[in-house]
Structures
1.
Amino acid sequence: MRNFSQFKSKSAHLSEFMATPAAKFISVQATDIVEYELSIDKLGEQDVKALESELTDPRFETDYWKEQINMMLKLGKKSEQQAFAGKGLDYLTDNYLPERLGEMGII
């Protein structure tokens, strides 16, 4: 039986090839709820606490994130990627993703 630590040390030199530093985070945003009329769920108490915590988190100190977080708190609603299921795969691939990736400067 192989020792995992031996495997890990033997593959450590490959880590730069396995990392994705240029990866972009794509997710349903608060503005998507309104713009794409997505199905929604009410924010729970834990959701509100998490969003309020994000407002003080340095990772979310940009105007963009503050706008998204505050909009979600104002709406009192949340949505998940599954909300696009009702619109169909073609809508997702022909409309939403090209628009979002274009906004992000990826395409």
2.
Amino acid sequence: MRADTLKPPRGLEAARPNPRDATLEWAAGRLIREERLLPGGAPVLVGVSGGPDSMALLHFLSARGAREGLPAAEVRVGHVNHGLRGAESDADEAFVRARCAEWGIPFESASVDPGARRRARRESPEEAARALRYGALREMAEQAGCARVAVAHTADDQAETILFRLVRGSGLRGLAGMRATGRAHGVTLIRPLLTTTREMVLRYLERHGIAYRSDATNDTIGPSRNFLRHEILPRLSERLNSSLRETLLREGRLFVEADDYLEGRARRAFPRVLLAREPGKISLDAARLRLYPKLLQRYLLRSALRELLGQVVDLSSAHVEALLLLVGAPSGTQADIPSGVRARRERGNVLGLVRSREPRGPDPQSKA
């Protein structure tokens, strides 16, 4: 069924799920409870583009609040108009605004110009749009008094992210995929649909008669992620593994467990290798670093970058290996890595990490 032939929403009073087919409600509700994504019924800003995933998320969270006796104002909407599709982008904003008015949900919007940022910083269109989108959502969340922003990444997005990061070479942490709670560009994100499949989303929309917008650019294979989605994943599923999505998700959960364990060990060991911390610079004891297994050294180096930049850094495994080589390199050896960091092997077994410019943020394809 096409989006523009769906009946208009019947209102939040019709959102109580049918137990026989409430698969999205079951998956998202379970994840919210297990990961405590919405503690204490605190207000949350929902990032809504108007597409099927975000419309399903908005309707579900609004209906959930109504069922649990929370006022509709506890859910607010933030829409970012990138202006990349001209009149279509404006129509997306008008659509989301109208649905929020119909459902009684506070609506905020922001317009951004990825082209200007891209020219100024030499970023890809996706990277520029992503940075501006999260920056706008952060500002809207702060103005609305919301500590968290809900985004509509699904299990299909998770599987694509894991495979993309495997191809790109992002190491163990990258293979863990997205987390139900995370941060990007200063925004605390929650992903209630991360265990919900795209099929569940579409069934939910049809069951509740929820209209949505379609973005034709998602069907092109120009962007790397679209190429992976439309060309690579279907071929792998057809030729090698008909349950590829489920396999990727299962492997991702194993990587999460390994990543959490190593992150915990690195957190406890980090004070032992830290020599000095000052604005814009971290100094590490290279001799002590070499006492740890190389796998743990990689996590300690990531910890140092997080301390330096104040955010989780999404690096490829090649960049982490460049840092690792410096641990045993001669004095004077240096390397530049993404996020505006210069690493230098200094005298006296010191490895210095210096923030040389403003970080550009996580890789745009990480979909973090």
